[in-house]
Amino acid sequence: MLTTLLLTLLPAAPAQADTRYAEIAVEKTVIHSFYDNKSAAVLEVEKGFAVQVVAELVPWSKVRVPGGFDVWVHQDYVVFDGGLGTITQDRVRIRPLPSTSAESHALGHFSKGEIVTRLGVDGDWVHVRCSEKVAAWVLSKNLIFPTRELSQWQRIWSDLVDARTAVPLPEVVAMEAESAREIGEPGVTSAVDSAEGGAGVATPSSASTSKAAGAAESAVAAVWIPFDAAQVALAPAKSLALANVQLQQLSAAVTKSNDSWNRVKFDNLEMVYGNIIWHSTERKEIDAARTALTRMDGLRGFYLASLASMARRAESAGDVIRATALQHLRETEMQPRAIQGSGTAVEVGWVEYHPAVSANIPFRVVRGQRAVSVHSYDGHQNLRGFLNREIVVRGTWRVDPSVAEGRVLAITELRILPERQN
Predict the structure, then answer these.
(1) Which domains does the chain possess?
(2) Predicted pLDDT of residue 123
(3) Are 314 and 328 in contact (CB under 8 A)?
């Protein structure tokens, strides 16, 4: 009887909802870090603001927001190159407040290699914009679910992402704010490791990590060597090492100048990491490739935000032609690799359910700011069983006018990805 009473009192686990879009139905409401009105506020939103519901725990809904939340991470777990930072360990807590107090209930965890945008600093803490995959809680009664085509929701979402573009904190301001900790012992993290990091292991400081990355980059000539899928399948370890150097070079160049963006190189590296995840039998290689894809998502987000910012400036200056061209370029860059409805591919991402895409093809594999329609035409894969799970799929592109993008990845094989290892 006591056991029954305890089970009754304990909150039920959040139910995984079919991923769906919703709008804020009240004039203003707060999105919280936890399903409790007393928990820290993460974002205040107004009527009409679009969200994506990923889970429900009556009377709360867990939601993602366009552009991601502004959160806090301890300085010992992120290194910066300009305004962009890279998380240095797995399972680093995402905090709504710059503290480890009970009021700063973690929204979730960063994965090693994730890219964040620096917004500010407060002592040992860095204020950052995180990716859209991070979710927080809002009262369900404050949501409505208008019926719209998926393409309409995507346009609304894209407009909100543009409106919420994060402006990186200038390097000189960040350096002044962080000057106090530079006096301390270099090269080793503080005692907060056990509370904030997943492994509780000393990690390099920003300065030592940047020097190591610079040395690695200088060791290889800055020449792009394209890969092919067969080459990666035969030698995943070698391909991983070479691809990592090329990604480092591309990242450094793009964060300095938008003109350095190269879609062909980006697509080629994305293919490399996807095929490493598919073909490698070594967990370390698989996890390293997943980390690299996360970093690529951050780099793509940085570039897309830059295009949106330039488009707004052009529009404000009355240059409609340039603004339209930049917006078109941004929309093009959000699409998957440029395969014209044919060929094979490996895609990595989370399974989401969007029946508005097509009555017969409602599933998508989503990663970063792009999505791929997928379908098991032979019926061997029940994709509903993989909702909100990270998977890797291999298949063949098939022309299908029933979806907006005009093509579907016909799945031939599918695997669920395990939790990442340190």
Answers:
(1) 14-178 (no CATH), 220-333 (no CATH), 344-416 (2.40.50)
(2) 82
(3) no
